[in-house]
Design a protein that fits this description.
By secondary structure, the protein is mainly α. 74% of the residues lie in helices and 1% in strands. The chain contains 20 helices and 2 strands. It has a two-stranded antiparallel ribbon.
Length: 507
């Protein structure tokens, strides 16, 4: 009951005309960037992060909430109309959504994605409000060994779940941890990996790293593979749903929410697995036989799972300071930019900001539905922008954002360097998220590792001095041993789903 009252207090703080304006601007900007091909919510927030630096923390995070949900909605629009997911979690939405659009039911697909996002996001945010404080209370009692083990768990599980190769995941993680070492050693004051460059002494700005890897890397990758063919966009009217569509969608929305939130709240995070499970569940429960030809359940369930997982990621981010998705990583860097350290003390030291942020998620989610459903035809027209002009604009805003961070031309050079790194990562199939997590969590892990070793007098056995730390390392070992079997089972399930889909198409 106390949490509910605090959430209502946060709503009262957020529901001012100026804050509502910031939320609306965030929704529109997030959708504008997120709807563009190949750009997900993480890149949308990274690209627009410098815009909020001049705002007060409360207003900035209200705009972030709008950017976040706007970027999520934009990704589903691209998946449905172009069959081009902005991120891996939107792949399942594209399977049935694009077929619905090709069958003339694009409006219904966009509507069930938007309403499902609203339902899942609202339920997920309310659950975050009740779970985060309880987890923070427990986390306050965690020692350095347990905290270090939790970070290792988050890195290992996120790195091995993404992509098809654990080796590539760990290579990306190693790159991120190395980048996180740049700057002064906090204990000795000695410069590390600065190569005599004074601008590197204060550590690399995560905004420059994120914008370079996401925005510039994507732009260079698209330019390297650019084909001057007009993009085929399926025309769409104003999204709407009939009575039958509502009847077929509401259960998948709830089931998708039930799949998505627990996965988002786990330190391993990610929406790929819950969206996949939601799609398979709806496919097995369907009695109409229209999966593979545009089943609305195949859009409603995965999209709800995606957004519920997105809401769930706030639990470990706020309560433990652990970002478990690329979007969470960028938002965590925004918190750090204001001198705020997420973790167990956040719920007490900055309670007003936290509850206003959670309330703003509800507001942003509602504004998303109110503003973007009528504007869907406009967002569809944006997809007709030629790629050269589109990515030229992205490069301009990326450079402007990197320069605005510190007003130092040196950051433009760093942006180009990380853009080239992002291009190479895409070329060799290295996942981006482990690198970003390594940059952010690396310094925190180093701090907790040194704290644990100081307590134990330099004995590495001190890392196992707490029962929770031992349990976590056992879980990591079991997961690593069982990963090959999990990967094979997942591959068989995906292959069987493709085979069944091909049979249905032949029939």
């Amino acid at each position: 009951m106390e949490n509910f009252e605090l959430l209502m207090g946060g709503l009262e703080s957020a529901l001012t005309p100026m804050n509502l304006l910031y939320a609306a601007i965030g929704v529109l900007l997030g959708t504008f960037v997120g709807v563009l091909p190949g750009i997900g919510p993480a890149m949308a927030i990274a690209l627009l992060l410098p815009v909020t630096y001049r705002l007060e923390p409360t207003s900035a995070f209200i705009m972030f909430a709008g950017l976040y949900y706007g970027g999520m909605y934009g990704g589903s629009t691209t998946s449905i109309l172009l069959n081009t997911p902005g991120e891996s979690a939107s792949v399942m939405t594209a399977l049935e959504g694009n077929r619905m659009a090709r069958a003339g039911r694009g409006a219904q697909a966009l509507a069930t994605a938007a309403v499902g996002s609203f339902v899942a996001g609202t339920i997920g945010t309310i659950l975050v409000a009740f779970f985060s404080p309880a987890l923070a209370d427990v986390a306050v009692d965690l020692g350095a060994p347990s905290y270090f083990a939790l970070m290792v768990l988050a890195l290992v599980m996120t790195t091995t779940v993404l992509g098809t190769s654990a080796l590539r995941g760990f290579a990306a993680l190693f790159l991120g941890l190395t980048i996180g070492l740049v700057g002064l050693d906090l204990n000795t004051g000695q410069p590390r990996l600065t190569f005599g460059v004074t601008q590197l002494v204060d550590r690399l700005d995560i905004v420059v790293v994120a914008v370079g890897i996401f925005a510039l890397g994507e732009a260079l990758w698209v330019a390297a593979h650019l084909r001057r063919k007009p993009t085929h966009v399926i025309p769409v009217g104003r999204p709407w749903m009939g009575r039958e569509d509502w009847g077929r969608s509401w259960k998948p929305w709830l089931r998708g929410t039930a799949f998505g939130f627990p996965f988002g709240a786990l330190p391993a995070g990610g929406a790929e697995i819950p969206t996949f499970l939601s799609y398979l569940t709806e496919r097995k429960l369907s009695k109409r036989g229209d999966f593979g030809r545009g089943a609305i359940e195949g859009v409603a369930g995965p999209e709800a799972a995606n957004n519920a997982s997105a809401a769930g990621m706030f639990v470990p981010m706020l309560a433990l300071g652990l970002p478990v998705t690329a979007t969470a990583s960028v938002m965590l860097s925004a918190l750090q930019g204001y001198g705020i350290t997420p973790g167990p003390q956040l719920m007490t030291d900055h309670a007003d900001l936290v509850w206003t942020l959670l309330a703003s998620l509800l507001i942003g989610n509602t504004l998303l539905l109110v503003l973007n459903l009528p504007l869907a035809p406009l967002w569809a027209r944006l997809l007709r922008i030629p790629r050269p002009q589109l990515y030229a604009g992205i490069l301009f805003f990326a450079c402007l954002g990197a320069y605005a961070t510190n007003l130092d031309p040196f950051d433009i050079g760093l942006l180009v360097a990380f853009g080239l790194l992002g291009l190479l990562m895409r070329r060799f199939g290295l996942p981006v998220l482990p690198l970003i997590l390594g940059v952010i969590l690396g310094p925190l892990m180093e701090s907790k590792l040194r704290e644990a070793l100081t307590i134990s007098g330099g004995d590495y056995g001190g890392l196992l001095s707490e029962p929770l730390a031992v349990v976590i390392y056992v879980l990591i070992a079991l997961f690593m041993l069982g990963r090959p079997f999990i990967a094979r089972a997942r591959a068989r399930a995906e292959q069987s789903a493709v085979v069944e889909e091909e049979k249905e198409l032949v029939d």
